[in-house]
Amino acid sequence: TAKVPKHVYRQSYQAPPLPQYDFVPQVTTPRLTKLDLQRDYNIDIFKTQLLDADFTALNATLCYDNQFCCHFEAARKPISSSRVYAAYRYRLAAYSGSQATVQRLETAALKVCAVFACTSVELYSCGRIFPAGVTVGNTHYFSALNVRASFPQAARRLIMPTSVDGSMLPLPVHTYKWQQVERHNLTDVTIGLLTPKLDLLTFGIWSNYFLDKVSQHNLDPILLPAQQSSGAAT
């Protein structure tokens, strides 16, 4: 009987190197607009701070309450001062609490630190993108961006990066650093860009402190009109 040396192959396997591209600032970049996106309405209960349209340096702390604070450091370099194109505005955000929801159905205990894009100065425009018919311009690019916070330790929690750009994809893992340092009852988390970045829509730290309660996900099934009229069950 033939045997496949799986373990030997696994030990000798090396992942192919990721392609490295020279960063080139661009006023316009490809955008994916053909997705039916659902806005995260938790944004409306976050504590946020609108940044100046032309900011080039940032060192700020935003606290949701007296126990949870987010620290932000950023640098941007200008690309174009043209007002011909639409441009995103940015907000800092901090949140800690159990009033957030999953798809507006089930409550969740979250702690969030993030920078996110908005289509205007109003909070309701955050979590949305410009439609396909709008030409969006990159007035600046991020040459540096770091977000850090301290998260209480818990038996059931998840802490992870949150990021997305104009292509509607998360940032590749080799383009940012992620660091967790454990200390007494706290976990210090830092996420930071390692390469310059255009068209950033979201960048930060997201955590879920799982609640001990009955799940509300098992809702009644959605029936098609034909099934409803016939009384068929799924």
From TrEMBL:
Lineage top rank: taxon: Eukaryota
Boundaries of every Vanin C-terminal domain copy: 37-211
Organism: Bactrocera dorsalis
An MF annotation (GO) of this entry: hydrolase activity
UniProtKB keywords: Hydrolase
Name of the protein described by the UniProt record: Vanin-like protein 2
